[in-house]
Amino acid sequence: MKVAKFGGSSVASAEQIKKVASIIQDDSDRKVVVVSAPGKRTAEDTKVTDLLIQLGEDLINGEAYQPALDLVLNRFQLITDDLNITNQVVQEIKSDVASIISSNYSDQMKLEAIKSIGEDSSAKVVSEYLKHIGLNAAYLNPKDAGIIVSNEPGSAQFLDESLDLLYELHKREEIVVIPGFFGFTKEGKLVTFSRGGSDITGSIVAAGVKADLYENFTDVDSVYCVNPSIVENPKEITSLTYKEMRELSYAGFSVFHDEALIPAVKAKIPVSIKNTNNPGAMGTIIVSEKEVRGNPVVGIASAKGFLSLYVSKYLMNRELGFGRRLLHILEDEGISFEHTPSGIDDMSVIMNENQLPIEKEAKIIERIKNELHPDLVYTERNLALIMIVGEDMDSTIGVAAKATEAFSRVNVNLEMINQGSSEVSLMFGVKEEGVDVAVRSLYEAFFTEA
Amino acid sequence: MKVAKFGGSSVASAEQIKKVASIIQDDSDRKVVVVSAPGKRTAEDTKVTDLLIQLGEDLINGEAYQPALDLVLNRFQLITDDLNITNQVVQEIKSDVASIISSNYSDQMKLEAIKSIGEDSSAKVVSEYLKHIGLNAAYLNPKDAGIIVSNEPGSAQFLDESLDLLYELHKREEIVVIPGFFGFTKEGKLVTFSRGGSDITGSIVAAGVKADLYENFTDVDSVYCVNPSIVENPKEITSLTYKEMRELSYAGFSVFHDEALIPAVKAKIPVSIKNTNNPGAMGTIIVSEKEVRGNPVVGIASAKGFLSLYVSKYLMNRELGFGRRLLHILEDEGISFEHTPSGIDDMSVIMNENQLPIEKEAKIIERIKNELHPDLVYTERNLALIMIVGEDMDSTIGVAAKATEAFSRVNVNLEMINQGSSEVSLMFGVKEEGVDVAVRSLYEAFFTEA
């Protein structure tokens, strides 16, 4: 059994939904389908979920919500018209919205319920169309599917008991179409995942049914070895491991949020990234363990917006617990960090800039001064991290040499180098203005040279 | 005013002491002299301090101590004979030892007093000889000089109040000769510094008198840019900063223990490393701040005997406090660490192998497993650290590239790379068997290539 998840662009229009149907028809193992809400049809278009958020906010603020609702209704009307199926879904949206409005729900619950309409209607449309073309298909509500979540509106976590319930899907004859993005608490309350949460639904369902493959259909042919907005037409990655995927996602470039993969990762389900618009393309497969060893480097990721908190104190290394006490202060202030490169008498803590806003900085520096009596403490902002990722790097001498040479060639100074003993990744810190040119130089070094 | 400290080889024989006298005579600013106990005259010789330790242990264990005492007496008799001065010092050693033996001192105090005889007698001989050649000189006991220390036998720490007392040396007309290696507690108890403690005395005295220069006379022309036992005839370092010196000393290669420098460092006294046997050689000067910027790399240091404790846990970076809790366990067990390179889901702690003996390892790993529930935890032993040091490295693009290329060229794999934001040093971890070949390759890259 395969679980196929289709993203927003894959269900953005009737034309796209026809491609989805054809993909499902093509492989009888595709028995479970998860869909997003209709996304953008063009760059200027608005996602249905954004229309719904507008609708919900207008409603809560006592403003006119009808314009936003009309846009949503028109969108689905157009889709059903073009698919030549009944507009039952449009009627249901109207009555759903009316009953939400007249309910005694809290504002938050109203918003949650309204936000879920995009995925829910999308699933109804897709299942309707599958039936229309003669397939045995059925819409399945997340509650009936068994997606049980924690009561954290907007960032629900799925509960493990979902898995056994989802396994029951094996008993279904039909192709079931499940809306992504939301689940229900044990008390039956509708709660959404974080934005992009349809990927989470897909991953949970794949884990629950113990799928042979979790197919994630998007609008790109594959995962690229470097961000296409930095390097033109970069090479595709045909296969990478979960660990590599996670390291790549971490530093900013990703097809989907790596956390969405967790349930599938834990269940060791292989994940395939495919293109709805070009389903014949090989795509990228994400596996637990790599079978074929090739280029030691599979990808290069980069992200801006980091800062370094630098602390130096003569004879720091004689002070048992200095590092621990520094990290304790940060933890105490709710600041999480990424890395802690250190010299003998100094230590830097690299963190995301959002962890230490300017207004909080003075307080932290004051605490460090008072509690640790350093000789020097300061922050350096506007840092970017670049990560070179590959599980085979540990066995290949010269990756670091090639990488540092690539930085040197384009005159980008290294503020930080961090390589732990795992050696799945090699991390570099540079000033933000140098990051793109460095990434291009690294790409050339690892992917285009003989 | 200059403070000149002469090491054991500089006062090992009459011939050497004549060189010392000539050096002192040569510069009227050399008003304060600190001396070690006579060291080895040949590779097979025994240091006077080792003879004294033997004497003390024989005495305490109730064994015959006369043989060791005779060796000490003979040594000084020979020196005074060859210098053509009275053998008063020999008589004083006899009576000092006799009074220590008949005292009601504890065994530890007896040992401390006996250990101090080498430096004390050496200072007496040198001052005697200076007077003999017509200089105005005087032996000065550390108590009278004002070297006040903590009551930690064998590892005394000097107390800050020494500094003001030592400044009074400016009032002396004579060249004062002070024995190194020991001081007195406020209660008047003789306590020694750690082994090699004459460097500490020299450094304290230089700080106390606010010397223009602290000259440390040894038996090498200068500090070398790499360990001469690894690279033949390495280049000399003419000037380096305290910070560079400290980084170099840290990773195993040093002329003297970097900690001895602390008092001089704090007082911002420049330190000159000179050769008693070749006082005309330029030597190496250690300063607070570098004036001339040259080769970005001043030296390469290496040391064996490190291990890496590797811990990985999926989603580690989401767990606020994970790193702090790991370091807390180590601190709790009294283990100090050097560095903590980290990936996203893993963290390594690099430490000296003596911090985690094999027999302690199982307990630590057990604690980490129980308290942090990692996916994986293990140690990797037999690691060596290599440090490339230079304060100008931060402004020079390409140092990392040159260094990693040097490793790659000799096929030595990098287990770890660590560069913090201070950028005074760049640290590499390699397996021990590769360290020497890597150091030679780095030396070629940074010091012999055009």
TrEMBL record, chains A, B:
Which reaction is the catalytic activity of this chain? L-aspartate + ATP = 4-phospho-L-aspartate + ADP
Its GO CC terms? cytosol
State the source organism's domain of life. Answer: Bacteria
Pathway connected to this protein = Amino-acid biosynthesis; L-lysine biosynthesis via DAP pathway; (S)-tetrahydrodipicolinate from L-aspartate: step 1/4; Amino-acid biosynthesis; L-methionine biosynthesis via de novo pathway; L-homoserine from L-aspartate: step 1/3; Amino-acid biosynthesis; L-threonine biosynthesis; L-threonine from L-aspartate: step 1/5
Q: Does the keyword Magnesium apply?
A: no
Keywords for this protein: Amino-acid biosynthesis, ATP-binding, Diaminopimelate biosynthesis, Kinase, Lysine biosynthesis, Nucleotide-binding, Transferase
- What InterPro entries does the annotation carry? AceGlu_kinase-like_sf (IPR036393), ACT-like_dom_sf (IPR045865), ACT_Aspartokinase (IPR054352), ACT_dom (IPR002912), Asp/Glu/Uridylate_kinase (IPR001048), Asp_kin_monofn (IPR005260), Asp_kinase (IPR001341), AsparK_Bifunc_asparK/hSer_DH (IPR042199)
Q: Which PROSITE patterns match?
A: ACT, ASPARTOKINASE
Q: Name one GO biological process term.
A: homoserine biosynthetic process
Q: Which EC numbers does the record give?
A: 2.7.2.4
What SUPFAM superfamilies does the database record attribute to this sequence?
Answer: ACT-like, Carbamate kinase-like
Binding-site residues, substrate: 49, 119
Q: Which PANTHER family match?
A: ASPARTATE KINASE (PTHR21499), ASPARTOKINASE 3 (PTHR21499:SF67)
Q: What does this protein do?
A: Catalyzes the phosphorylation of the beta-carboxyl group of aspartic acid with ATP to yield 4-phospho-L-aspartate, which is involved in the branched biosynthetic pathway leading to the biosynthesis of amino acids threonine, isoleucine and methionine.
**Into which family does the record put it?**
Belongs to the aspartokinase family.
Q: What is this protein called?
A: Aspartokinase
